[in-house]
Specification:
The chain is mainly alpha-helical. Helix content is about 90%, strand content about 0%. The radius of gyration is 12 Å and the shape is elongated.
């Protein structure tokens, strides 16, 4: 619930953090 509120209140920051997490996950998948 709080995560949704964060996205609604600050899409830019949430989007930035989301992209960073996705990038890390992609790097791990590629490294494996």
């Amino acid at each position: 619930m709080r995560d949704d509120l964060r996205v609604a209140s600050g899409k830019e920051m949430s989007f930035l953090g989301w992209t960073l997490e996705m990038e890390l996950q992609l790097r791990q998948c590629l490294s494996l």
